[in-house]
Design brief:
5 helices, Penicillin V Acylase, Chain A, alpha+beta, 33% strand, globular, 17% helix, seven-stranded antiparallel sheet, single chain
Length: 253
């Protein structure tokens, strides 16, 4: 994922609400969200190149999502797949904080990443390139946004996503407002853009919540809600290079 906004213990009906856009090279093969045949408790898309995923949830309530940390000067040529971090947690049984504690000492082996993991009781964040390389943060109840920097870094798209989630937290059905935000193609003024080392033109291209491009862009938009009684609903819209939905998948369990 490259944009995630979370309402944790905020909405009166849904303790967890997640809206996310997955940005990726269009030639990287992937399957849309489905219950994996080899792990039928796991609902997630699947990266067909490395085998992991970018976001998923299990029938037992384990949730995880990952974004890249944008820093072109800090790349590992043959680092392990960051998508495996998501699937490894989802297919595990240990507490989220324990998983992150075991990951922290080897996090530098990977290209930069941000990882959110949790269950019905707690959510945690770990960023491999944050100032304290071993810091594991319990996510406090509230509205949180994440793109390709550390949690709640106020990039324009993160601020816009958080504002939409704040409004959606008052909606009986938050998905319509959140999908509208995920479909936003408006960028940001140059003076508000981050400087991540990719150049101004690329910063402009990457600024909107929905990125449109023939080679790289937003390939899927997803909204997930988990209700107080444990019922989960996930809707994923697969998008073409123009940003138009080509397939919608919905799951409730």
């Amino acid at each position: 994922m490259c944009l995630i906004v979370i309402a944790w213990q905020v909405h009166p009906a849904f303790p967890l609400v997640v809206a996310a856009n997955r940005d990726e090279w269009r030639d990287r093969p992937a399957e849309p969200a489905h219950f994996w045949p080899d792990h039928p408790e796991l609902l997630a898309g699947r990266d067909l190149k490395a085998g992991g995923t970018w976001m998923g949830i299990t029938k037992s309530g384990r949730f995880a999502a990952v974004t890249n940390f944008r820093d072109p000067s800090d790349r590992r040529n043959k680092g392990p797949s960051r998508g495996a971090l998501v699937s490894d947690f989802l297919l595990g049984v240990g507490p989220p904080e324990t998983f992150l504690g075991e990951l922290a000492p080897r996090a530098s082996q990977y290209d930069g990443f941000n990882l959110i993991v949790g269950d019905r009781d707690a959510l945690f964040y770990f960023g491999s390139r944050q100032a304290d390389a071993h810091a594991i943060t319990a996510i406090a109840p509230g509205i949180h946004g994440l793109s390709n920097h550390v949690l709640d870094e106020p990039w324009p798209k993160v601020r816009r996503a958080r504002a939409a989630m704040i409004a959606a937290a008052a909606d009986a059905e938050p998905a319509p407002r959140l999908f509208a935000m995920l479909s936003d193609t408006v960028g940001a003024p140059d003076e508000d853009l981050p400087d991540t080392g990719v150049g101004l033109e690329m910063e402009r291209f990457l600024a909107p919540p929905l990125i449109i491009g023939p080679a790289y862009g937003t390939r899927a938009s997803t909204v997930l809600t988990v209700a107080i009684d444990g019922r989960a609903a996930l809707e994923e819209r697969t998008l073409d290079a123009s940003g138009h939905p080509t397939e919608t998948r919905t799951f409730t369990f």
